[in-house]
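RECORD TYPE: inverse folding
INPUT: structure tokens
STRUCTURE:
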């Protein structure tokens, strides 16, 4: 597993997994139940990678089968965070054939989606691996899948941004508009939030950066700024308050991420590793 990737406990994830199993199984697996109605025997299956990439989600896949039958044995041949190649066996499963067949699609869907995210995340991270800037994810996640999608970005080498609105204060453009300005927004929010929540402010100009500095923002986001302006903003912030962390965001691509990192920002946030990732092709093969 990646040094960054930590799954939530099963008490949190199990209700989600059970719901996804119920969605797929419905009133019963007509095919499997009819095929094995008289003699449910044990069997063995292998998971095989059909494309190169970074594996993520095998512990989750194992739990899917375990929820169907606690006696199923799911042995991960590789750990999450490992690069796989086409034809490589990544897991071996042994147990009741009905559990293997009923859990196959949900388990594979999760692992394929999460592995696709970790794979693209790793590609982004590699672009700036020799620079201090750290890639972070965003809240642009699939409803119901945020915990797992953010786990996958961490497996790929990124750092998680806030999980939800309750983690930290982020004053964005619409908040600024609603408050009547950065000064008003920071002042009002600071008087009402509990310690030790941090305050991050989204800025789009040097004037807004100056306002965020004046009112002691903890983190300043440079949003959709041209690289030259971003470089000026970083210099301004470093000169006035070295404790302030700097985040860059907005239309970050594989082609631009390195130039952004070279401006000296601490963090680069991007939704692309989640929203633009392609599932990693995996398959399950029953061994007869």
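DESIGNED SEQUENCE:
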């Amino acid at each position: 597993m990646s040094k960054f990737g930590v799954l939530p406990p099963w008490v949190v994830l199990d209700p989600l997994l059970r719901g996804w199993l119920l969605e797929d199984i419905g009133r019963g697996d007509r095919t499997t139940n009819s095929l094995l109605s008289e003699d449910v025997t044990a069997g063995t299956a292998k998971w095989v990678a059909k494309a190169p990439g970074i594996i993520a989600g095998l512990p989750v896949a194992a739990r899917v089968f375990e929820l169907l039958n606690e006696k199923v044995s799911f042995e991960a041949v590789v750990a999450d965070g490992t690069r796989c190649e086409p034809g490589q066996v990544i897991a071996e499963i042994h147990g009741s054939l009905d559990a293997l067949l009923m859990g196959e699609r949900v388990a594979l869907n999760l692992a394929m989606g999460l592995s696709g995210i970790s794979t693209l995340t790793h590609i982004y991270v590699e672009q700036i691996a020799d620079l201090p800037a750290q890639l972070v994810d965003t809240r642009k996640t699939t409803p119901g899948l945020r915990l797992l999608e953010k786990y996958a970005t961490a497996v790929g080498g990124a750092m998680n941004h806030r999980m939800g609105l309750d983690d930290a204060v982020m004053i964005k453009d619409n908040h600024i508009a609603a408050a009547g300005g950065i000064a008003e927004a920071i002042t009002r929010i600071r008087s009402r939030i509990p310690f030790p929540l941090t305050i991050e402010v989204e800025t789009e100009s040097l004037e807004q950066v100056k306002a965020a500095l004046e009112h002691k923002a903890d983190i300043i986001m440079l949003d959709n700024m041209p690289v030259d302006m971003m470089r000026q903003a970083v210099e301004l912030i470093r000169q006035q308050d070295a404790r302030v962390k700097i985040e860059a965001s907005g239309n970050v691509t594989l082609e631009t991420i390195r130039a952004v990192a070279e401006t000296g920002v601490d963090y680069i946030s991007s939704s692309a590793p989640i929203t633009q990732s392609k599932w990693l092709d995996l398959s399950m093969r029953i061994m007869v």
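NOTES: The first strand starts at residue 42 and ends at 49.
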